[in-house]
Amino acid sequence: MKRRFIIFLCLISMFFAVNAQETERLMLSGTGNDKTVNWDFFCTAGANSGKWTTIPVPSNWELHGFGKYNYGFDKDTLRGKEEGLYKYKFAVPAGWKGKQINIVFEGSMTDTEVKINGKSAGAIHQGSFYVFKYDISKLLKTGDNLLEVKVSKHSSNQSVNNAERKADFWIFGGIFRPVYLEALPKAHLERVQLNAKADGFFEANVYAAKGADKISIQLYDNTGAEYGEVIDAAIENQIRIQRDFVNPKLWSTEFPNLYTAKFTLYKGNQIVHTISKKIGFRTIEVKERDGVYINGVKMKFKGVNRHSFYPTSGRTTSKSISIADVKLMKEMNMNAVRMAHYPPDGHFLDVCDSLGLFVMDELAGWHGNYDTKTGTKLLGEMMENDENHPSIIFWANGNEGGHNRELDNLFAEQDIQKRPLIHPWEVFNGFETTHYRDYNYGIGNYDYGHNILMPTEFLHGMWDGGHGAGLEDYWKTMWNNPLSAGGFLWDFADQGVVRVDKNGFVDTDGNHGPDGIVGPYHEKEGSFYTIKEVWSPIFFEHREMTVGFDGSFNVENRYAFTNLNQCTFEWRLEELTNPISVFKNGTATSPSIKPFEKGILKVDLPKDWRNYDVLNITAKSPNGETIFTWSFPITLPKDEVNKLVVKTGKSKVNVVNNASTYEVSANGIDVVFDKTTGLLQKVKNAKGEIPFTNGPILQEGVNNFKNFTHKTIGDTVVISSTFERKENFNTLEWTIYPSGIVKMQVKYFPLAYFTTFVGMNFSYPETEIKGVEYKGNGPNRVWKNRMKGNQFGIWKKSYNTSATGEPPFLYPEFKGYYSNMYWCKFIGRNNTFKVYTDQEDIFFRLFTPKKSKDTEWDNMSPTFPNGDISFMNGISAIGTKTQKPETTGPMGMKHVFYDFEKEPARALEMTLYFDFSGN
């Protein structure tokens, strides 16, 4: 027993001896916006300045009521005056005696002067987004130590301001990333640079402080098991180690396999220092005039630009925010992210490594750049902190003209992996990355250019424009063009700041900040779902559910590394009824379809499948995440009308032919039509009047309905206009059935060859609406150039006045266009009515959304017809911040119709059935 106890004590001693040789860390601040530490604070200018108080660290001081809020374009009246003074007392652990102690700042904006016990820790650091440190071993004392930090919001180095401060984003001040002490043995590993290739080749540059004579490296897989043999090497100040490993599991966005490389430094047989690094085996290769290859596979990047940002804490984030951001990007079926426009928090790169996302890491610069001396230092800090992340496959030297070309060679010189360098917005290094090209010009370049095409910003979102709107057209061309490597949308989330000086108002600085696919708190906008479908790695060819359908779907595998037999497919047949849907469901055998190949997914449906309304197919990734759910309607609108619209009844249809109106009543329903125009004037049921009137008024067509007559045909009454080719070529016909159902049939010709939209309008007071319930595609509204992303079903929506990108960021919005209408129930405050159609591809429109402030070019043009409620054969598109609708691709262009004066004349039709009973 005694012997066992002695062995136990020895093991414990060995455990602590080994772990004592790891780099030790003492947090002085919190770790992010979810865990902070209060420091003493003094702000020199702006709100709450001129007095000592406290502030959480890390944070941006504006978000805590200090200084002044600045967007990059504004004229800062406090420029050069706004500074933050910090004080914090700390004690160093007794066990750290004799070690090298560094103080580490992960990010401080911007000029940062550090003192320990009244003495300077080193030169003032200039540059906001970079990890920097000072060796403060000689400045420390026993007991309490005083840390003093002075942070200037704007730099005394004008090149730093040009690169970081004069930019299209919020400008904050403060120590916004964590601060901590790290303790290292005198002999320690200063830096390791790793390169792990897809063929198993592994190399490391090792930099060590003097005092050790041997190093060993051991790799471990994700279970903790040893992988490969241990590598031993004699140590000098700098050495390069190379080995080959057999059949490593490769890192990619689809299979982010990681290994741990543990480096152990020895003095004789004694361990003096150990560090561990996550690595991924993967190879990046750029083939000139061809593309970017990862692990030998040619890639299409489905990317987005992402700021380090959160509305309540500015640039101070947390690992949980990083996880949420990456999960949302992957939920949209993205595989890449570009850092805009500076290096991110380290935990964001960790999450990209572990969850699988390609990264373009960027040295700051936006139309302006760092001078060479400053840029060289900051580039080195970025490289040392970020270089070993397998997720990083590109470096970017500034953005949109903010490229210091004297720094270009340093990327290759300092990067052991020799990752490709990009100049976003330029034709550079074999890449064409120009931003925001119009579809026609850009696609022409795609067809006739010679560089690898990869716009680092395209489809600049603003409010509800861009992102999903236009993406389908762009992506069709990008996918099919061999020179296209994909691209990056601008940008991920609305940059809305919670203003403590405005009672919590979320400020996007007008139209500068609402550029996101998601809202400030990650609220999903309509484009989120469009992107999810368009960028799905599984592509379903269009399929009509006809009588002869045998359950076979033509599909394309757009994964790069995944066979579709690694995915799962679930099907669900639904009979859409209210309030409960009847359904059958099952799974389909996953077909073996290799990446970039086509094949057939066979769904074994029950014999009665045509008795259902819709077939939904949900695909899930190898990890079980939902890729997308595709809807295939089985019943058609005419089937719905035949099933639900009752025309017969015991009631008789009565008509009163007045001098100016037709008053018609049937089964408790009273309707009044204008005798001259044929327009609906009044509707009433047993509950009272329904304020649905003044229609149909044609949009982009001539209301030349004339010469109305009425007649009784069997038990129905028909009121119709008279067709005459020159004067009254559009026709309107009302049919009133004994059941009280009112049928409207319009045949009409658009006013012009090119039309923004076509359809007809009715009046309905917006103050009367409570909500709608409809059968069609939902739940999100659509635009002509943003049709993807919805499912077919029955949707119930309450009225709201939400405007995309503005508080209260409540989605989905209510007002706007909706597609594939079968029927819609309009729920009023005092009465309801229902509208059916027997036609396919009919849109309905609910009121007019707020038109948010556009740019001076008025590019978005979110156009809506007149009236309040509309039923449309064609709807309008929406533009982006930088492009008008028609320049986002064919779907964004106006509708084109035949000239009705030419033979054969082809009229558009609209048939609606109105149930005004209120039941």
Automatic annotation (TrEMBL):
It is an enzyme of class 3 (hydrolase). GO terms for cellular component: beta-galactosidase complex. GO terms for molecular function: beta-galactosidase activity; carbohydrate binding. GO terms for biological process: lactose catabolic process. It comes from the Bacteria. Keywords: Calcium, Glycosidase, Hydrolase, Signal. InterPro entries: B-gal_small/dom_5, Bact_Beta-galactosidase, Beta-gal/glucu_dom_sf, Gal_mutarotase_sf_dom, Galactose-bd-like_sf, GH, GH-type_carb-bd, Glyco_hydro_2. This is beta-galactosidase. It comes from Pedobacter frigiditerrae. The lineage of its organism: Bacteria, Pseudomonadati, Bacteroidota, Sphingobacteriia, Sphingobacteriales.
